[in-house]
Specification:
alpha+beta, Jelly Rolls, 4-stranded antiparallel beta sheet, 31% helix, transcription regulation, dioxygenase, OBE1-like_PHD, transcription
Amino acid sequence: MSSTQAEAPQAENCPLCDNKPRFMPLWFQENTETWIKCDICLVWCHAACLKLPSEECERIDEYHCPKCAISHGPSTLRKSLREHSRINYADLENGLTGNPYKWKRVLDSKLFVKPKFPKVRGDQLTLDWVRTFGLDEPILIDNPDGLDMKMPSKDITVSYIAATVGYDTPVDVIEQPSWNLYQWANYFDGPKRDQVLNVISLEISGTPLGDSIVRPRIVRELDWCENVWPKELKAFEYPKVQLYCLMSIKDSFTDFHIDFGGTSVFYHVIKGSKIFYFVRPTPPNLKKYSRWISSPEQSMTFFADLVKDCYEVRICAVIGGNFLHGYNIGGQLAIYEIEKRVDVPIKYRFPYFEKICWYAGKKYYRILKENPDSLSQREEKGLVELALFLSKLSSKLERNSKVSSEERHSIKENIPTEVRDPAKLSRRLSRRINKHITRNNEEIDAQLDSTNNYELHEVYANERSGSSPEFRLNTPTKIRLKIVSRKRNIEDINIEDSEDNKGVNEMANNMTDSSNEHQAKRILLTSQTNDTEGLFGDKRDGSPLTPQSGSTISWHEEDKHLEKL
């Protein structure tokens, strides 16, 4: 397919979908998951709608759609087929199972998108940063200074890990289920390895090695195991998923998966390097994942072939851990439902998932009573879904509910003893969060009504925005900035704009300073002229973009993109 790295559209239909034949041949039906983009007009289409077999797509270097081919000539083919050679997955699974490098052959045959994930310094990754930008995509941290963490030395060895954690500790080695750490260390340090093996689930909390490690501060602040799970219960039971030691041989491969319960994960590479392949968890991709993971042909199908884009990230034994948090509640619940629907074994799910959700509901209900304005918009949206999830669980305990006795017992077992009336808690949580959101919307609407003497230009502080917006006016004029802050406080500021716009930009910088208690969530720029130009910085380090002339920018949080008016 085209080697361009622009992101494909999220919609499942392409511009040519209406032209599909009524009776489709089998190859056409199977090829509707393959997309190809014209390198001239940049429009994405199903390969099937273009009547292009997938093997033909893999041979194309630069693709020209039928319309563009008239003026730019036909598509060009690759000079070498090595990078896009067709892989026979049936042969890999059935005939080449003894080949330890089979997945390397698959990966070497693919082209992956090089992502532009945010890179931040360790001292930048704070709760305020997460409140603003969220955790919707991977974050790369080149310099760990400021993360307030403690990790093992780069000189650590597998033998040392085995001795510290315990030689008799069982490890889940892929294809060797009954090994312990002593056997693993002998294999890892051995002179010759006839298999490519992988350890990805060695949890080390409570061991001397685990006790010597301190997770990054931001992880400790977000983790529900730290913040909602009762501390007095930790000595007896808790979700033991906070510290993992991953040890992999060169060319080892772990197939595509979603971490249990939709948890977020931190990784710190101590030695060597690790390559990650990411697929965006969009609703269409989650549907494809759900079908793929429950398919009998899963082991013969490379999941990245089923989606439009797969991102490759290279980073340089790995320490990592999983954690649930309040900034992706909806995503976590969605993954939990997928795990139940496809019947993922309990062993491979997040331990005590429903129980920790009840604890989270209990804590957030208290916050909604005592300090609701401290919640971010991401948490508010997630709490609506959490309340609905808990309500569904409690409704299954009613006498007239049609659930099995086994499911009823499981739900009861995962309700904490502190939650004496689960139905009452879920109802109260739902009422509180919906009342809180309604009140905030009414306050904002009332403030917007007061701007009727001005032309209104709305600018939303977005997840992808930077921390230093710029406003530029064509002519000196009196403007009015209306700030809807994170604390829901509202201020009117009138600024006489100088010719160099210093007054406006200084105010804009102050509004988005993370140390300012009135950090702007939404900024309303109003003026008495029609020649206003606005621009938000888009860089994660806070530096502004070069101003664009002749355009008014409206930045909407829901759209997650800049839109010229």
